[in-house]
């Protein structure tokens, strides 16, 4: 977050991630929005159903952009641990026809921000979003928004802010 704190105007950060159950193929996504100092603004989990990992990454990004837009945020850094999704969003890589609607939505939504940066982050730095993505499996289909961190999230928020690496499950 320290790079964001020195940026003018201050940027907020959206981290998103996906989760997919191996046994069933059911997917969920999650994300966390933080201010330029790293403080929690809002988070979300979305239970999607049976879709590919790539589409789940895009779905999570779209949900996060909708959330940030509804909060009136204008300057945003979006971090995802899928370099393929980031490349497709930036128009640097082709995508299959199944992703067309999600990509179109993301590109339309990004136009609502004064400035927006999409970048790849290694999964070890994206643990808070991963935590919220995994929660999504236990929720009803649809999106759940968190105005305060759900139990257990603060641990991962601190790890992400400190850059602590750990093995993911």
Automatic annotation (TrEMBL):
Gene3D superfamilies: Ribonuclease H-like superfamily/Ribonuclease H (3.30.420.10). Pfam families: RVT_3 (PF13456). It comes from the Eukaryota. GO terms for molecular function: nucleic acid binding; RNA-DNA hybrid ribonuclease activity. Residues 21-134 form the RNase H type-1 domain. SUPFAM superfamilies: Ribonuclease H-like. PANTHER family: OS05G0353850 PROTEIN, PUTATIVE-RELATED. This is RNase H type-1 domain-containing protein. It comes from Rubroshorea leprosula.
């Amino acid at each position: 977050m320290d790079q964001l704190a020195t940026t003018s105007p201050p940027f907020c950060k959206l981290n998103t991630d996906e989760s997919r159950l191996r046994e069933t193929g059911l997917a969920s996504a999650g994300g966390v929005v933080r201010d330029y100092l790293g403080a929690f603004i809002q988070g979300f989990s979305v239970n999607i159903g049976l879709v590919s990992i790539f589409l789940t990454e895009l779905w999570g990004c779209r949900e996060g952009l909708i959330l940030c837009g509804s909060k009136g945020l204008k300057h945003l850094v979006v971090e995802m641990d899928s370099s393929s999704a980031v490349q497709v969003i930036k128009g640097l890589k082709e995508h299959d026809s199944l992703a067309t609607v999600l990509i179109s939505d993301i590109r339309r939504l990004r136009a609502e921000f004064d400035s927006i940066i999409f970048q790849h982050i290694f999964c070890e730095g994206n643990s808070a979003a991963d935590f919220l993505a995994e929660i999504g499996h236990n929720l009803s289909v649809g999106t759940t928004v968190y105005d305060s961190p759900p139990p257990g999230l603060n641990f991962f928020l601190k790890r992400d802010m400190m850059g602590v690496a750990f093995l993911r499950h």
